[in-house]
Backbone:
């Protein structure tokens, strides 16, 4: 690993610590009656409303369609995620200190795998909330209608336009991943250069 | 002559104005001034609003007005809040009168606000809104308003637009000269319009001159919830009409107009109009403070109520006060001086610099302007013209700075644009007259429809007017709008005063009878509005913070039902065990925490109003069922798509029946209880409601 790539991996690892302070993902809901919108922030350890009362209001509205209450305590992943991020950040620092190529490959691969797994898990929760409705107590029942918000982008759910997007923590994690990939590319290119010089 | 000229009113507005100017000159010079009223009343002048008037008042859908304007409701006892320049009604604030629309004065929480020593008074006549000021400029903290009939002053919190405090004024009858503020809202004032025996007593009315007195009250106002009468000043038995505080150089002084210096007690229309001059009372309230500190005031037993609304419980409390500190001019020399002022002066208005004191002599042919600097010199020189009850009377010539000649007929009130101009309302000649401070020349006239009382420029009574618009608050409406029978709404007119010439922009109807108004730029209060009350901070004795906390308790013949309201149901919504002979209190809490999600509550046959609950607030309705049966209740404020489903039933059984107390909980409430238990965060839900403070009897 070059000095630059070691610095980049170190920076990427430290950037992950942002996730302890800023939310990973956000969902915004806008309707004719809610021009100011309602918002939900998904942190690595909890789910909160964009304001003090938003989450409660979203849950209040969701009772019409029989959706389960969105509560952090009901999502076990939120208890595990802080540890996963901690291990990922610590191992990233270790990779930077060690400066060896192989651990770098392993770290970037693990990062990518965890990111994909996280997104799939998030999608599964969205699917679960959107599809597994309490039809016995639902007030609005539309055959065939589900209320799964998109993973990323916008979707119309009855009167609400739901928009899902990475929040600042998610952006930081994305930047961290990009830095790690750049570090990987630099390392790969330097190896090729070294190999070329040997061949010459 | 006027028979010939009057028809011209209907021909050409420009020409009419010129003719009217000419006529005004003739009429003011002549003796037949009042006859002229018949002619000066202008006809249809829809063409007065010219050019781009429409675009100047148009506020596009979704856009905001530039100013909040607060118009007193007059005999409806309330306040109307309008946007300017559009004239759109934004809100109706309940103050001195019961309002079944909001439950103000009907629900148990607000009833104590209307308590007085005369009992619970369900109505008043509110005249003068007054914005709180900092350094002589409206600051958007509070709005004060007076109750004229049963003298009171009220404070409205401008973060919630709710009345939070009402103070009764003792030793007073007719709190008209009120609640004008000092430049930092240290005091607001109230002066008695009707002199009465003080303390009130059973005396012959004809003994007016011996027994009747007036009072001026200075009320501490800069601490919310702590209004109190700092001191009262006992004055001769005249009618005290209006007042304004000095500012700048005249800071520390307060000026009140008086009329009926004749001290007539019958047919005042004639008998109080005899003297050539009445008085402006100039009160040095700093001197009064010194006398108070020196112990020169007499502690006078006087009963009056101070009513406050608790911001957390939303429960009002009425407290009986028992004395005031009374000062007399004789015991405090240098505190009060009388400035003779022509013909029953009404308004007394201080220009932004604080130097000029403008009087509106209702029957005067000039607008007299006193100068504060001249008044001080006259006091120093002892330029007195005798005294009344220990009050030195200053010589008219020694205080007068100038007179506006031929201003029109019936000058009442003056406001300022901050650019050296004054605008005076003319009741009889039905116009607003613009004139220049210092030169006293009339610059422009604008006919108004009809017979303006007060006029208002945003901040126009302050140190820094926002001199863009003037609002004419007219007393007579007649043909301005589509007719609506013998009784019509009042009429307001918006005038552009930004240029040299006034431009008529807009007519709009108002509710009640606005006397005065105040306005300020919207940004001073727009962004600090409370959107909902925090449920977590609600300390009402009947509050429920979750659906699971609802329930019913009996304490003798008293039944308390605690209920949550949330889209789109009440919890509980089926209640049994109530008996004929019980007094039932419904404590309904809107547990929503979302802007503008309001719920209402009404029950069949209640001799009461509805309840309206803002999000996070609790309101209590008293209901005495008189017969057995099942009585529905429902939400009265269209809250959601299933608003029509938001209802429930109360079963009323015969006295002594063995139907047990029952209040159901919804499946949702059950789920909530289960969730709370599971998370170990189950709040203690108290159903023991006996002996709740402030809720016994009603």
Residues:
């Amino acid at each position: 690993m070059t000095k630059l790539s070691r610095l980049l991996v170190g920076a990427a690892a430290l950037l992950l610590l942002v996730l302890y302070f800023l939310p990973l993902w956000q969902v915004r809901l806008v309707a004719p009656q809610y021009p100011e919108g309602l918002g939900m922030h998904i942190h690595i350890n909890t789910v909160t409303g964009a304001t003090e009362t938003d989450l409660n209001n979203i849950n209040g509205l969701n009772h019409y369609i029989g959706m389960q209450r969105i509560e952090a305590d009901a999502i076990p992943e939120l208890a595990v995620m802080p540890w996963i991020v901690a291990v990922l950040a610590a191992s990233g620092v270790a990779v930077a200190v060690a400066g060896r190529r192989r651990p770098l490959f392993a770290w970037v691969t693990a990062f990518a795998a965890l990111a994909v797994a996280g997104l799939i898990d998030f999608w599964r929760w969205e699917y679960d909330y959107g599809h597994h409705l309490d039809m016995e107590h639902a007030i609005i029942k539309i055959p065939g209608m589900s209320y799964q918000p998109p993973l990323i982008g916008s979707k119309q759910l009855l009167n609400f336009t739901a928009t899902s997007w990475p929040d600042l923590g998610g952006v930081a994690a994305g930047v961290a991943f990009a830095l790690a990939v750049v570090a990987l590319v630099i390392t790969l290119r330097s190896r090729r250069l070294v190999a070329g010089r040997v061949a010459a | 002559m006027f028979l010939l000229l009057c028809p011209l009113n209907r021909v050409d507005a420009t020409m009419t104005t010129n003719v009217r100017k000419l006529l005004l000159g003739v009429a003011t010079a002549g003796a037949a001034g009042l006859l002229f009223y018949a002619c000066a009343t202008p006809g249809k002048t829809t063409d007065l609003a010219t050019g781009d008037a429409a675009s100047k008042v148009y506020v596009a859908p979704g856009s905001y007005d530039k100013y909040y304007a607060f118009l007193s409701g007059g005999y409806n006892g309330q306040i109307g809040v309008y946007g300017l320049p559009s004239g759109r009604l934004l809100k109706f604030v309940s103050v001195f009168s019961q309002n079944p629309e909001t439950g103000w004065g009907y629900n148990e929480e607000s009833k104590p606000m209307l308590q007085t020593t005369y009992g619970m008074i369900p109505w008043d006549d509110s005249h003068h809104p007054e914005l709180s000021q900092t350094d002589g400029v409206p600051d958007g903290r509070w709005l004060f308003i007076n109750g004229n009939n049963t003298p009171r002053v009220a404070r409205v919190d401008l973060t919630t637009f709710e009345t939070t405090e009402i103070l009764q004024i003792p030793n007073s009858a007719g709190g008209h000269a009120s609640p004008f503020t000092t430049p930092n809202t240290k005091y607001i004032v109230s002066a008695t319009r009707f002199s009465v025996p003080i303390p009130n007593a059973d005396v012959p009315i004809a003994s007016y001159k011996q027994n009747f007195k007036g009072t001026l009250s200075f009320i501490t106002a800069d601490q919310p919830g702590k209004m109190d009468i700092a001191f009262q000043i006992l004055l001769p038995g005249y009618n005290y009409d209006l007042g304004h505080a000095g500012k700048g150089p005249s800071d520390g002084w307060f000026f009140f107009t008086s009329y009926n210096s004749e001290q007539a007690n019958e047919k005042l229309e004639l008998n109080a109009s005899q003297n050539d001059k009445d008085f402006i009372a100039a009160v040095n309230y700093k001197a009064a403070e010194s006398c108070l500190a020196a112990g020169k005031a007499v502690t006078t037993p006087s009963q009056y109520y101070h009513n406050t609304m608790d911001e957390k419980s939303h429960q009002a409390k009425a407290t009986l006060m028992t004395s005031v500190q009374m000062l007399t001019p004789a015991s405090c020399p240098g505190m009060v001086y009388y400035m003779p002022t022509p013909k029953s002066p009404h308004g007394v208005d201080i220009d932004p610099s604080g130097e000029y004191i403008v009087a509106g002599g209702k029957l005067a042919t000039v607008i007299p302007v006193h100068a504060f600097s001249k008044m001080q010199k006259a006091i120093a020189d002892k330029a007195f013209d005798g005294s009344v009850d220990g009050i030195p009377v200053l010589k008219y010539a020694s205080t007068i700075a100038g007179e506006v000649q031929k201003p029109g007929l019936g000058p009442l009130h003056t406001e300022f644009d901050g650019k050296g101009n004054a605008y005076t309302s003319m009741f009889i000649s039905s116009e607003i007259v613009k004139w220049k401070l210092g030169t006293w020349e009339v610059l422009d006239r604008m006919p108004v429809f009809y017979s303006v009382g007060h006029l208002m420029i945003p901040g126009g009574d302050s140190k820094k007017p926002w001199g863009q618009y003037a609002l004419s608050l007219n007393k007579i409406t007649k043909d301005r709008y589509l007719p609506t029978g013998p009784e019509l709404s009042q009429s307001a007119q918006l005038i552009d005063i930004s240029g040299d010439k006034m431009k008529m922009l807009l007519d709009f109807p108002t509710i009640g009878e606005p006397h005065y108004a105040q306005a300020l730029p919207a940004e001073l209060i727009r962004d600090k509005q409370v959107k909902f009350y925090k449920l977590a901070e609600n300390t009402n004795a009947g509050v429920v913070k979750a659906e699971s906390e609802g329930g019913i308790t009996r304490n003798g013949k008293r039944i308390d039902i605690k209920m949550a309201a949330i889209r789109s149901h009440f919890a509980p919504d089926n209640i049994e065990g109530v008996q004929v002979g019980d007094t039932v209190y419904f404590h309904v809490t809107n547990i929503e925490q979302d802007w503008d999600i309001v719920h209402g509550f009404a029950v069949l046959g209640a001799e009461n109003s509805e309840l309206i609950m803002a999000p996070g607030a609790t309101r209590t309705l008293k209901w005495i069922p008189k017969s057995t049966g099942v009585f529905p209740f429902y939400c009265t404020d269209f809250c959601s798509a299933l608003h029509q489903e938001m209802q429930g039933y109360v079963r009323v059984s015969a006295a002594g029946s063995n139907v047990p107390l029952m209040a159901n909980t919804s499946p949702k409430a059950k789920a909530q209880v289960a969730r709370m238990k599971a998370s170990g965060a189950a709040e203690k839900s108290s159903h023991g409601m006996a002996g709740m403070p402030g809720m016994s009897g009603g």
About this structure: Confidence is low (pLDDT under 50) at residues 1-19, 21-43, 681-698 of chain B. Chain B touches chain A at residues 532, 566-567, 592-595, 641-642, 667-668, 675, 679 (CB under 8 Å).
